[in-house]
Amino acid sequence: RKRGRLPAMSWCGGPELSFASLWRCSQTTEGLTGLIGTKCVEDQSMLNAIRLGNGSSERDLLCIDLRPKVSAWVNKAGGGGFESYPQCRMIWGGIDNIHVVRDAWRAMGSAVARLVDTQVGSWMKDVASSGWYDYIGAILSCTLKVVTEVLNFKANVVIHCSDGWDRTAQVSSLAMLCMDPHYRTQVGFLKLIQKEWCSFGHRFRTRLAIGDAPTSEYSPVIIQWLECVFQLLQQFPDAFEFSTSILVRLAEEVFTNRYGTFFFDNERERRSVEAHTVSLWSVLLQPEEFDHWRNPGYKAQRVHLYPSICQANYVVWEAYWFRYHVRGESLPAESSSWPSSESPKSQAMTDVPEAPAQTPTAPPEPSQVSPESEELEREPGEPMSLFSPAELTAPKPEPTQLFADDDEDIFAKPNKTGGS
Predict the structure, then answer these.
(1) Which of 4, 57, 75, 331 is most buried, judging by how many CB atoms fall within 10 Å of its CB?
(2) Contact yes or no for 146/41 (Cβ under 8 A)
(3) pLDDT tens readout for residues 242-297
(4) CA–CA distance, 187 with 322 (Å, rounded to integer)
């Protein structure tokens, strides 16, 4: 597998789903050898073990290559590949690469800049031409395929793009939001981001130019994912304990450099600054912050969500796109971010605070938080953490090689605005 990113289990259902699971990884590296019939036997055995892992031996393993088919074949010629294995049902996700995302994001920004309330303008045309919601539709479509396979057929699923840290993170985390109500709680949502984005190695520093000048690898992939979450909140408004305001807050904080949560491209690099930076999670879990992003209409129910992929059901994320536009002043307070007068306090706390005096207080009492929320139990003076002591006892992995830029991004296709 490219970059050594072998299949890893992201989520596993309970006995009611026959322990069906979702796996993520990078593309295979059979390349030209696969074209002449030489395949990696070990990789085939690994995927066959995943297929049989929950006792579902009659159904082929669904492997979703999230890339467009043409891009996957181009990568195959360059040393990459995809799973053309026996008993693997291979389908293509059609989600375009980071260059297309960047150009669509900029095109949406240009559409907002051209919008004038006193003129007819070309807003609808500009939004359509950006292709932004076409790409969001592709992500939601792949999410629905994963959810349907796991929930309806109780079968395992493997997803990947080229390196497994952009499109794969988008689809895996959205699927988990749909399948698991825990991740639709406030604490669960933060755990989801920490696990599927930070810990699995999304390249925040490179994609958002954190501390560096933007390169050709710059792309707001995380913003695209946040708008996908926004679409889910619009379709299922009472299924999420958190409100849309947290999405705007996150969209702002990934760029501000105020917190160490999104520094660097991987966990190994991030650990070097943990003791000197503030954790966004510890700030959001403070009682005075908790209520800012709680959804008052939340109904704690163990239900599964099947997102609608029809664009007629999409809603423009006005709280994000119009936050610097005059139209943003008339938006409901709930959809905007925190008032500037109540912005987070500058406190000397870290991801794992050392001094008890700097330890943030616990979240609201259970009477104030829905039963679906996971209460954070800790001893006095114990550092605040998103995870329980049992979850933190696993040994840390050995440092791994730091990677270069994506090979796939060399092969960008023009988008609807004519960019590349």
Answers:
(1) 75
(2) no
(3) 999 999 999 999 999 899 999 888 888 888 888 899 999 999 999 989 999 999 99
(4) 28
Residue 258 assigned as binding residue: no
Interior/surface letters 185-217, b for 16+ CB within 10 angstroms, e for the rest: bbbbbbbbbbbbbbebbbbbbbbbebeeeeeeb
Residue 112, pLDDT score:
95
415 is in an annotated binding site: no
Half-sphere exposure in the Cβ direction for 169 (13 Å, CA) = 23
Where residue 292 falls (left for φ over 0; alpha for ψ -120 to 50; beta otherwise) is: alpha
162 is in an annotated binding site: yes
The pTM of this model reads 0.80
Q: Are residues 97 and 71 in contact, defined by beta-carbon separation less than 8 angstroms? A: yes
User: 100: how many CB neighbours lie within 10 A of its CB?
Assistant: 24
40 is catalytic: no
Q: Which of 25, 63, 161, 198 is catalytic?
A: 161
**What is the distance between the terminal CA atoms of the chain, rounded to a whole angstrom?**
28
Contact predicate 259/277, CB 8 Å: yes
